[in-house]
Amino acid sequence: MLETIAIAWLLLFFGDFFSTFIYHIPEHVFGSLHLKTHHSWKKDFRHYAILTANFQVLLDGILGALPYLLMAFIFWSFSPSGVILGLILGQFHVWWRHVIVLGWNTPKIVNIVCQILFITTPERHWLHHQKTNMGFGDIFTFFEQPAQTWLRWLRLLRLRLRYSRT
After folding, report:
1. 55-75 vs 2-18: helix crossing angle, rounded to 10
2. pTM of the entire structure?
3. Where does the pLDDT of residue 102 fall: very low under 50, low under 70, confident under 90, or very high at 90 and above?
């Protein structure tokens, strides 16, 4: 049982880390797919997240989930039940962190537990939808400060690359 929980946590931790630092933040700096499909002010998130068959939206979701799936492959031999639990919890968290558009308010006690465990709440994730430079980390909030540093560094790199071409 302890092994299952540990593998589930490791899958979520490393999946969130790689998704944040290898896909999400670089996509905010160098790409447009994620910004266009996930942060556009024209989108009604309920339609986007649940009902869409838009290839770009699906591609963004797959690219964001790919690090979790790679971690699942790596951890499978240690604990298949831990991998399954981690993937289920990860998907649940994806749905939960987007319920704010339905009028959800996280109960105070849940908010306190999430702060103690460094878990992103729907309100915190909504901050990322409103201010795309804040609220990084799909699942864990402790990636926020390193993500801000990585974001600034990649923006400087983009500027440097742009000016070195001229």
Report:
1. 140
2. 0.81
3. confident
What does the pLDDT look like over 5-43, one tens digit per residue? 999 999 999 999 999 999 888 988 887 665 666 655 555
Q: What is the DSSP string of the chain?
A: -HHHHHHHHHHHHHHHHHIIIIIIHHHHHH-SHHHHHHS-TT--HHIIIII---HHHHHHHHHHHHHHHHHHHHHTTT-HHHHHHHHHHHHHHHHHHTGGGGT----HHHHHHHHHHTBPPHHHHHHHHHSTTS---SSBGGGHHHHHHHHHHHHHHHHHHHHH--
Task: Give the Å distances, CA to CA, from 139 to 23, 66, 104, 162, 163.
Answer: 15, 15, 18, 33, 36
- Rounded CA separation 138/97 (Å): 9
